[in-house]
Amino acid sequence: MRQPSVTARRVAAASVSLVVAAGAVACGPQDNDAKSSGGDSTPHKGGTLTVLNSNPQQDFDPARLYTSGGGNVPSLVFRTLTTRNRENGEAGAKVVPDLATDTGRPNKDATVWTYTLKDGIKYEDGTPITSADIKYGIERSFAPELSGGAPYLRDWLVGAADYQGPYKKGDKGLSAIETPDARTIVFHLNKPEGEFPYLATQTQFTPVPKAKDTGTKYEQHPVSSGPYKVVSNENDGERLVLERNTHWSASTDAERKAYPDKIDVRSGLDSSVINQRLSSSQGADASAVTTDTNLGPAELAKVTGDKELAARVGTGHFGYTNYIAFNPEIKPFDNAKVRQAIAYAIDRSSVVNAAGGSALAEPATTFLPDQKSFGYTPYDHFPAGAAGDPAKAKKLLNEAGYADGLTVTLTHSNAKDFETSPEIATAVQDALKKAGITVKLQGLEENDYSDKIHSVKTEPGFFLAHWGADWPSGGPFLAPIFDGRQIVKDGANFNTGLLDDTAVNAEIDAINKLTDLDAAAKRWGALDAKIGEQALTVPLFHPVYKRLYGKDIKNVVISDWTGVLDISQVAVK
């Protein structure tokens, strides 16, 4: 999911997104059972679910969305070839079939993937969904006027690098996608991609009937393939009203429960207002949730002291790491012992406190998140305990030629995100001072910060960064940050350490060939441990999501894919 500013387009996140995004120990949430809502805990159909969000659901077009796993609200309207498993915790990090009968059938070297559509899948108007519709939906995502979605298809599909979409005069479509019949679709890739089933969860794989395509206006009323259809979209997603798609059949969809009759998404709200309304749970707010607003430290302290409110907090973990980044082409960070000294000096307990405390952040010593699907392999190459080891740091500085200490500048964002913000920067500054390192802080406004750290020409030597995966695997986590071939010299660059190691690049290629995702995960974990020896980053912490929901909400499911409540599973009293 890239950096948080980009993650917002994806998930978080996520599917991206955050991106997600939106959306960390791989464990199922223990304080979000449906029974916590009181009374009859059995979920029933009916009622209206209200969604209270800060960020509008903009660009509600499957071509323009960047949503891992199909997204949260988008996944109610858009079905894809595959999707995320709608289960609590670790089980929810798996990819499962959606419109397709399976997660895909690769050829021997994973350069060709074939899918067969299920019988009986229909649009909201009752017409059948065909493989040609999925091909067209993907092709329109290449149109410049519908940009914003995941970039992988342009890189992965044969001959797709310069494709400009179906609206160009004389367009002949993407020859890399074949549809030999109405239920079969075949993808031809430039290189082996064992994780193609994960990519097929992105909304670009949503079927779009060509006859109903209205271009940039399609977002106002996209044709539903999911359990709900759009009946109103106001102010570019600020108010989104969804009602049942009567032609959706649960017999073709094992993932979405679709309990409520209506979904009312209201956005543009202040986070404190959202949490106050969910806390009070008056009127319609009793049947409300949020998909993008966390409890802050002060709010969490209040909630924790109230038994009834505490029972209405969903806890989730998402594949996300906050870290210190070094540019080894800038002195003194070209010296590995200086980077190691900083790693030893970090006081993770103070950093975690600055991020909101142990309920909202978990200390990290690995770059990969602490989840099985990523291939998490425990390591701590520079063990310094929870409070850091300034003595060890001073020893390394002496060996590096800085016996009298040194002065460095730490670049961070001024955004109040408890991630790359002043609170975290100050905690790092205080810890390094004990090791004889004077840290000057350079705080930048969010856009300036993002532009500076993502440009090879302006990247500072020492800065705060963070990364979230496009899907729960080590591939989209490690490759953008450490694959030398992904260094972008004249655009947005995410390989912060400018690492271009032949062995690392080769191992990334070797893992990408694997279609056994469990075997691939183990290799990603081993690669993470190997790269970590170079101290190109200092992992700090993984965030924990704590989100309140209304008192009449039932069937709360929070997977390790998104880390947030899945509204496709929710029922209201």
If you had to describe this structure to a student in words, what would you say it looks like?
- With 573 residues, the protein is α+β, with helices and mostly antiparallel strands.
- It has helices at 4-7, 131-140, 152-156, 196-199, 271-280, 297-304, 307-310, 336-345, 348-354, 390-399, 422-433, 446-453, 475-482, 502-512, 517-532, and strands at 48-52, 82-84, 95-97, 105-106, 112-116, 177-181, 184-188, 228-234, 239-244, 262-266, 288-289, 313-317, 320-326, 361-363, 406-413, 437-444, 462-468, 537-548, 553-554, 571-572.
- It is globular and about 75 Å long.
- The two termini are 35 Å apart.
- Keywords: Signal.
- Residues 94-485 form the Solute-binding protein family domain.
- Pfam families: SBP_bac_5 (PF00496).
How would you briefly describe this protein structure?
Residues 94-485 form the Solute-binding protein family domain. With 573 residues, the protein is of the alpha+beta class.
